[in-house]
Design brief:
This protein is mainly β and 220 residues long. Helix content is 11%, strand content 45%. The protein folds into 2 domains: 101 residues, Nuclear Transport Factor 2, Chain: A, CATH 3.10.450; 100 residues, no CATH class. The protein is globular, with a radius of gyration of 20 Å. The N terminus is likely disordered.
């Protein structure tokens, strides 16, 4: 029988300062990108376009746009910006009127920005701000780690960044923090995974820790 052991090593505590340019920078946050906009056309979907369970409108190296339907008739439109690793998930009522929109950072499957709900008249009924209490946005947290991990990024050909955060809507008494880890070449991916904890208000590096997985074979 194989047993899985998980060990965590706390490496450092730090009060590392962050370049001022990283703080509240909409260019870095990409909030002006079209993926974060809700257009007039997206407020309604012509359900007659969906002949089967799925409709792929476009799928190239930069962008994917597809619709698919559920058994209850409701429809989801998943738009993916492959360069930013951002998904915009739009849900529609069975008659094609918008129901909700959610933005996802796909490496970590973490909601970012705001999730918005609509009634059947198109009025906003509820907004969940997933970055409430954060001055540092999702992209700034990644850029900070890119500066801190320059040597590893170059040495191990890091090409992906994984992101999670503390949701202050769910845990209002917690400190806002981003957790960022990386994926690179085979040599890096075989190492214990290093996690960077970035203060969601100041952008400072609070600490790092590593998580390692050890497999061992034991008899029952």
């Amino acid at each position: 029988m194989k047993l899985l052991y998980l060990f965590i090593t706390l490496l450092i505590f730090s009060c590392t300062s962050v370049p001022k340019d990283y703080l509240v920078n909409n260019n870095t946050c990409n909030f002006n990108d079209s993926i974060f906009k809700i257009t007039k056309d997206e407020m309604f979907f012509d359900v007659t376009r969906l002949k089967g369970r799925e409709l792929i409108v476009v799928n190239n190296e930069f962008f994917k746009n597809r619709f698919y339907s559920y058994e209850d008739g409701e429809i989801t439109n998943k738009k993916t910006n492959k360069k930013l690793d951002i998904g915009k998930w739009i849900d529609y009522y069975s008659d094609g009127r918008i129901k909700s929109v959610t933005f996802i950072y796909l490496n970590g499957k973490k909601e970012i920005n705001k999730e918005t709900y609509y009634d059947k008249q198109g009025n906003i009924t509820k907004v969940i701000d997933y970055e409430k209490g954060y001055n540092i946005c999702w992209a700034e947290a990644i850029e900070i780690v890119k500066q801190l991990a320059k040597r590893d990024i170059k040495k191990y050909k890091i090409d992906s960044f994984y992101l999670s955060r503390i949701d202050l809507n769910e845990f209002p008494n917690s400190n806002p923090e981003w957790r960022v880890s990386m994926k690179g070449n085979e040599a890096y991916n075989e190492k214990d995974r290093k996690n960077y904890i970035i203060d969601g208000v100041t952008g400072k590096l609070n600490r790092t820790y590593t998580v390692g997985l050890i497999y061992d074979s034991l008899d029952d």
